[in-house]
Amino acid sequence: KPVSIAMMPFAGKGIDLCNDGDPICSQGRNPFAHTSYEKTPLVGQAAGFVSSLL
Question: Do the beta carbons of residue 42 and residue 20 sit within 8 Å?
Fold first, then answer.
């Protein structure tokens, strides 16, 4: 996704990890998508990203 001007100072310091269908972080309509992150590879991706910043 493009980075907005207000977020430019934070570019490269965050990643967008959103389950398909999650109504909280996307236009999804599946409430269970928001409560199932621990069952997806997104947890490992987030951990890998954070560790790369250390």
Answer: no
Q: What is the domain count for the chain?
A: 1
What would the DSSP string read from start to end of 8-25?
GGGTTS------TT-TTT
* Nearest in space to 20 (alpha carbons), one of 8, 30, 10: 30
pLDDT digits (tens, 9 = 90+) for 32-46: 999 999 999 999 999
Please report whether residue 54 resides in a domain: no
**Long-range pairs of 17-23 with CB within 8 A, sequence gap ≥ 24:** 17/42, 17/45, 17/46
User: Two tokens at 4?
Assistant: 């907005």
Per-residue pLDDT reduced to its tens digit, 9-38: 887 888 889 999 999 999 999 999 999 999
Domain coverage including residue 44: 5-48
